[in-house]
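Troubleshooting entry. The earlier prediction with adenosine-5'-diphosphate gave an output that would not parse, so I re-checked the input for stray whitespace and re-submitted. Clean input:
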Amino acid sequence: ATPAAIAVATGRAAGMGLLFRKGRALEALARADTLVLDKTGTLTLGHPALTEVLPFGPGEEEALRLAAALERGSEHPIAKALLEAARGLPLPEAAGVRARPGEGVEGVVEGRRLYLGSQALMERLGVPLPREAQELSQKGYTPLYLADGERLLAAFGVFDPPRPEAPGVVAALKALGLKPVLLTGDHPVPARRVAEALGIEEVLAGVRPEGKVEAIRRLQAEGRQVVFVGDGINDAAALAQADAGVAVGTGTDIAIEAGDVILLSPNLFGLVNAILLSRRALRTIY
Ligand code: ADP
Ligand code: MG
């Protein structure tokens, strides 16, 4: 192996908006056969819109205020949808707010401990979900639930569209012989809908951060060379577990620190360039 070839490759990469932070990445990318992709914020724009509000008890505006109060300090893309929808409303103080990566957030608002997050979170809390609330996911929206620990207060539907270049990127990666796998903490129905739109056949949904690591380990145990691409706090461990971890530059600091390669431009075609460049560099080296 010639360090010069590596230097040339990483230099060329920088010109394409790809930051190679760790040496192992070049070789792992060149040998990769499986590309595991996070959904929210990676394949999608990360700017979801709030599409529906179903209040159960408090009014619609009150439900929004409570949810937005919990999300005020959140780095998650979903938080933006709620904060934007609540713009102009006076938000109550939220105390002791804690992110539950891959599940949601919790905190104390107006003297009550409130939880906001996925269906899985509600199941863990033992909060029953009325049928209308469950139907949000059947429409293809990511469902979010606000509860006080016993009772559902509201359900929200959010939709985060895929990045416009994502279908082309997936097609290009397949043409390079890579198998794409969608790995997400989102509900299976909206996850499958996005996967279908992008041409991804394999979907692992409703997966918590530890589950993402396990899923990658399982693929590696089958002898696969795995690249993982992610953006969130919930992706850091998976980025480290993969043979190469690619962090989306617009993602959270924790993900960026865990990445071997950073996509500095938000355009996902950087991934295709990273694979091509690594393959070329390895041919030069060996
Ligand atoms: P992905 O793996 O697609 O990036 P995440 O693991 O970040 O998704 O989130 C999985 C699910 O957990 C979301 O679809 C949402 O239901 C819930 N969730 C996570 N973080 C938050 C948050 N800050 N506010 C509300 N819901 C959240
Ligand atoms: Mg994400």
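This one parsed fine. The chain has two domains: 3-45+161-285, 49-159.
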